[in-house]
Design a protein that fits this description.
The chain is 34% helix and 20% strand. The protein is α/β, with parallel strands linked by helices and 501 residues long. It starts with a helix and ends with a helix.
Length: 501
């Protein structure tokens, strides 16, 4: 079949330009190279590949990811790709996810709603009251929620929303729940199961196994970025242009202008740059459409790394990450990053370990960039995450201007207006975490497959299942992911299309 696809690909020699070397851009480039298609180029403004899934080694030798990334997959193709490129480099470490909520001075297993038995009585009673109220309400007609706030209240009740759901989600998203839509959650939120919750309370049982990432894997070497470096290294270097920033897109002429003044002509463009920037930098769109760039909401992310010698509390010895809904610390998540791989620290034999902290920022939630590292460090000490004898030997901080694409109220209407025009009128596929602006398909597996499926759509006309139908791909592992529609021969389809011209 791959030989057949290779023959089909050669019938179409359009120049394909890929902007961005994160998972989406690399997935697209890998697919083109896999098919033997040679008329393409990948452009990135950075000196290294990986995008938001890259990793950094600081000046003390500690490795950091650009956020709390773990690898789990909905796709057999993605699994094969990663095994192919990473196994020769040392392979993987497999982890059972151990994630907790830290609140009320105690660790509570995640998801909180399944483990409310661990709450103090003054919190447990209102949570149960709220859950019973929504349980009773479920017997009658329900009004569809207009926003994320209404969805949370309808599904978790006032008690859980007051102590966790509302404050935690604001810390993550940096936008009020009233401004967020509610059609994006899918598998990302554990729904209430009253029987399960009551059983856990009666039998005093912890419930930790929920979620698509209950078991995940992590590279032995290089952090998450090591995955994408390995993918990048399979690509022909004559098709790569790093340190090359796109500053202007002429949609009518199909011409990119780079920061150094050079240009790049394309027939089809896969852009993974943030959609708001693509719209702002593009010439040829009506003003009503370019103005939509100002309506797209997103938050910035501050990633703070603390490299430590000694002072690791025993209770963190097996934990992967903790969630923090309370205002006592500025971060919403703390990852015990050294637990992912011993090679994330320069010398584990000296008792070195590491904490990676995440802080969101938006117009609703400003962050003082001058003091945030100190605030995070003080919060870790205050909450007992670093024992008094622990010595911080490395402090690392970066700010990602585009951290999370907010699923805001009105997002889908903008995407439904803009994306078909870009693709159908100008042959621009805007895909990826920020290119597609769909958080529900913005994990690394989703993002990579958006690139793979965009290429198959360009060459064979096959469906972009991930981008167009997030609920389908998130429902179960897509072992039957298609390179083209099963009842369509790509070579015959291309010949038929050519005959019509």
């Amino acid at each position: 079949r791959e030989a057949h696809l290779h023959e089909a690909a050669q019938m179409n020699k359009d120049r394909i330009v890929i902007v961005g070397s994160g998972p989406t851009g690399l997935g697209a480039a890998y697919r083109l190279h896999e098919l033997g298609y040679t008329n393409w180029v990948l452009i990135d403004k950075e000196p290294t590949a990986g995008g938001l899934a890259g990793s950094v080694v600081d000046d003390k030798g500690f490795t950091w990811d650009l956020g709390g990334h773990v690898i789990f997959s909905h796709y057999e193709y993605f699994d094969r790709l990663l095994d192919t490129v990473l196994t020769p480099r040392g392979g993987w470490l497999d982890h059972d996810r151990e994630s907790w909520v830290w609140m009320r001075g105690r660790h509570i297993p995640y998801p909180l709603q399944n483990n409310i038995r661990r709450l103090p009585a003054e919190d447990l009673v209102p949570c149960l009251d709220g859950l019973l109220e929504i349980y009773r309400a479920s017997a009658g007609a329900r009004t569809a929620p207009k926003d994320f706030y209404e969805w949370l209240m309808a599904n978790f009740g006032k008690g859980l929303c007051d102590i966790f759901m509302i404050p935690y989600n604001f810390k993550v998203w940096a936008y009020p729940a009233r401004e967020m839509a509610c059609g994006w959650m899918g598998e990302r939120v554990a729904m209430v199961d009253m029987k399960r919750i009551l059983n856990n309370i009666v039998y005093q049982k912890d419930d930790l196994g929920w979620g698509p990432n209950a078991r995940f894997r992590f590279p032995l070497h290089g952090g998450t970025g090591g995955i994408w470096t390995a993918v990048f290294d399979t690509l022909p270097k004559e098709n790569i242009k790093l340190n090359s920033e796109v500053v202007h897109v002429d949609l009518t002429k199909k011409l990119l202008t780079l920061k150094d003044g050079t240009t790049e002509k394309y027939d089809r463009l896969l852009s993974t740059m943030p959609l708001d920037l693509l719209l702002a930098h593009s010439e040829g769109l009506p003003k009503t459409m370019t103005d939509k760039s100002k309506e797209l909401k997103y938050s910035a992310s501050h990633i703070i790394g603390l490299g430590i010698e000694g002072g690791k509390p025993e209770e963190l010895s097996t934990k992967c990450w903790n969630y923090y809904p309370e205002e006592t610390v500025p971060f919403y998540r703390a990852t015990v990053f050294s637990n992912y791989s011993p090679h994330n620290v320069p010398d584990a034999s000296r008792g070195q370990w590491s904490l990676m902290l995440e802080v969101s920022e938006s117009p609703h939630k400003p962050v003082n960039i001058e003091t945030i590292v100190k605030e995070c460090e003080e919060g870790c000490r205050r909450e007992g995450m670093i024992a008094p004898e622990g010595k911080i030997v490395s402090r690392w901080h970066t700010r990602l201007d585009h951290g999370y694409p907010t699923p805001f109220v009105g997002r889908d209407e903008i995407l439904e207006l803009v994306q078909p025009v870009l693709k159908n009128q100008f042959q621009v596929w805007s895909r990826g975490r920020f290119g597609g602006w769909k958080y529900e398909v913005a994990n690394q597996d989703h993002s990579c497959m958006q690139g793979v499926e965009a290429v198959d759509n360009m060459l064979f006309g096959s469906e972009e299942l991930t981008y167009e139908h997030p609920n389908v791909v998130n429902a179960k592992k897509s072992y039957a992911r298609r390179n083209f529609t099963l009842d369509t021969d790509p070579l015959a389809a291309l010949k038929a299309a050519a005959a019509k011209k």
